[in-house]
Specification:
A six-stranded antiparallel beta sheet has the order 20-19-23-22-21-24. Strands 2-1-5-4-3 form a five-stranded antiparallel beta sheet, sandwiched between helices. The chain has a five-stranded antiparallel beta sheet with strand order 7-6-10-9-8, sandwiched between helices. Helix 6 runs antiparallel to helix 7 and helix 12 runs antiparallel to helix 13. The chain is built from 22 helices and 24 strands. The protein is α+β, with helices and mostly antiparallel strands and 624 residues long.
Length: 624
């Protein structure tokens, strides 16, 4: 040991000068100990750290300082000190070639981490040690920051409102988030097997591949593209895709990042808008042609100008009423009974209407409106409706014809003056006979007798429209808007009962009311609400919560929409909301299913919930 002391006290004489000066130059805190732990040497960094942290110089690096004694004093209460002591002793005894450990050493003002390295050193022929403590706080903090960043990234990645995928250079999907899986309809393994281009519609692959090729060349680092994806059920979905890349140092692609946003609803709305613009232009031309024909017919003949004007205005009003109905129904057709009621409402209970729900085509509705206007005008001027006791019975039925269903329409006037044939054939007579006959492919019967006027025709149903199928749900509907939604949906439903295509449904009119809620139902049966009816929220005075729903069968909001999609049938409900301290409020709601493309499974559910007043009866659920 005396040799060791001489070596350190006279380093120049013993040749140990250079190693000691090297230790002094280090930023690490370095000490040399003998086999018993006595501190033989410390560098300036060790002294500065000890003094800066309030250590006793004698204990830290004085002649009596013993590093093992310091460790032993703390080992009983400090596990890190006990671990350090065991490691140093094992290394001094030759059991370890070297000992290393990381440990925290926090001060009142900052968090600090160090790495201690204990290496053997020949000290005067005995196995001593060089002990260094290196401050690794920046490294630990960077590691913690990276871990926190990874946690934040994973949280954003998995919970993002858009689909995100990490794509390998060969276009296989390395990692995808939950929204990406929901949009595409595939699970992670399926996406990994299919690859990014494998889920792209075949007609859109060339555009996508070309952009990726340009990106590989280095000309661009990102691109945006609207394209279609093919889902597992065969349906297509439109997405807005933004693809960017991360490059290696040599400029090659390390991986791609693809971000998908479902724009199917927007594309459907754009498609519907284009159709409506074309339809508007077509309807405008047809309307002008009809007005021109009415004007020509009304202003011809022997009648006076005032008579012609009155007839012309009346016919235009009838046509305007019909167009009002068509506009309300988004030009999907007009109900025959609505058309009749509008024309005959002024006569109250004297006009009796009987027949099934019949939707007239746009063209048939125009002709029928003029026909009914002529019949009603004649009845009010000369027929049964011109006297207080006169009665009118309008009846229509669908009968079996030769190979196709036929509409049997009857207009019968009773208890009025005798009906006599007109002395001349004017536009009105021509309209209800020749025009109607040509338009509806029939031979109308006009009967004039003592009992009153009788008008009848039997025409192919296909020339006029279609009968709406009756159902338990339809019979229970109360609110006009609810009825309109059901009728619009029923007209689009396939003959085999398949759900209508969402692209063919004009929900703009219903969305404008503020009562429409639209949800998409994913392949995994999860429900995502695309739009919540603002009028319902306004009526309640706060956002809608599932716990507000207290139906007898326990269906909550999400379950109700999922159930409608699973059954692929309309669902009618009376909802009761209890806000406490008062009456429960009742809302009438109708849910109807749609598919993203004709013939595919149900992918969307549209619903309207309309305020029905205070609750007086128990809620119920009925499906067709």
């Amino acid at each position: 040991m005396e040799a060791a002391c001489d070596m350190l006290q006279n380093p120049a004489a013993t040749g140990f000068d250079l190693p000691l000066r090297s230790l002094q130059a280090l930023q690490s805190h370095v000490a040399v100990i003998d086999p018993r732990g006595r501190i033989l040497f410390v560098n300036d960094a060790w002294k500065d750290f000890a003094l800066g942290n309030g250590a006793d110089p004698e204990t830290a690096f004085g002649e009596a300082a013993n590093y093992l004694d310091v460790c032993r004093a703390s080992a009983a209460t400090d596990p890190l000190a006990a671990r350090a002591l065991a490691g140093i002793e094992a290394m001094l005894a030759g059991g370890l070639p070297q000992f290393t450990m990381e440990y925290p050493c926090h001060s009142p003002d900052e968090a600090r981490w160090f790495v201690m390295t204990v290496a053997p050193l020949d000290v005067g022929g005995a196995r001593g040690a060089v002990i260094s403590h290196l401050n690794i706080t920046p490294i630990i903090e960077a590691t913690h920051a990276q871990a926190a960043s990874e946690i934040r990234f994973r949280a954003m990645f998995e919970n993002a409102a858009v689909g995100i995928a990490e794509i390998a250079p060969d276009c296989s999907c390395v990692r995808v988030n939950d929204r990406f899986r929901r949009i595409t309809g595939y699970d992670t393994d399926e996406l990994r097997n299919l690859g990014y281009h494998g889920i792209t519609h075949k007609d859109d692959r060339d555009a996508d591949t070309t952009q990726m090729t340009i990106m590989r060349s280095g000309a661009i680092n990102s691109y945006t593209l609207e394209k279609r994806l093919r889902r597992p059920d065969g349906s297509d979905i439109w997405v807005n895709t933004t693809v960017s890349c991360l490059r290696n140092t040599d400029g090659s692609i390390a991986y791609f990042i693809a971000v998908l946003d479902d724009i199917s609803e927007r594309r459907l709305a754009e498609q519907r808008q284009r159709i409506l613009v074309r339809e508007l232009a077509h309807r405008g031309k047809n309307l002008l042609a009809v007005i021109q024909s009415i004007a020509g017919r009304s202003l011809s003949g022997p009648q006076t100008l005032d008579e012609a004007r009155i007839a012309f205005v009346g016919r235009l009003q009838a046509l305007a009423q019909t167009y009002g109905i068509l506009v309300d129904e988004s030009f999907d057709g007009a109900l025959l009974d609505t058309l009749l009621q509008n024309e005959l409402s002024a006569h109250g209970g004297r006009a009796r209407l009987e027949g099934p729900k019949l939707v007239l085509t746009v063209k048939a509705a125009q002709t029928f409106a003029l026909l009914v206007h002529e019949l009603a005008t004649n009845a009010a001027k000369y027929g049964a409706l011109s006297v207080p006791d006169g009665r009118l019975h309008v009846n229509w039925n669908v009968t079996a014809g030769e190979g196709e269903p036929m509409l049997d329409f009857t207009w019968r006037e009773t208890d009025g003056p005798p009906a006599t044939p007109p002395t001349r054939r004017g536009f009105g007579t021509t309209l209800i006979s020749r025009v109607a006959g040509a338009e509806f492919a029939c031979a109308p019967e006009l009967t004039y007798g003592a009992a009153g006027f009788h008008y009848r025709f039997v025409a192919p149903l296909a020339r006029l429209g279609a009968v709406l199928a009756d159902s338990p749900v339809r019979r229970r509907l109360k609110t006009p808007m609810i009825c309109a939604l059901y009728d619009s949906w029923a007209r689009l439903r396939g003959p085999d009962g398949t759900a209508p295509s969402l692209a063919a449904f004009d929900w703009t009119h219903f969305a404008e009311t503020g009562w429409l809620t639209l949800a998409t139902v994913e392949p995994d049966k999860s429900v995502r609400f695309l739009q919540i009816g603002r009028a319902l929220v306004d009526e309640m005075g706060r956002p809608l919560h599932e716990q507000d729903l207290s139906q007898d069968d326990g269906l909550n909001l999400v379950s109700a929409y999922r159930r409608c999609a699973e059954l692929a049938e309309p669902s009618h409900e009376l909802l009761r909301f209890d806000f406490g301290g008062g009456e429960k409020l009742t809302f009438e709601r109708l849910l109807v299913p749609f598919s993203a493309s004709p013939g595919s499974t149900v992918t969307h559910v549209a619903g309207i919930a309309v305020y029905d007043g205070p609750t007086h009866t128990s809620g119920n659920v009925t499906s067709s």
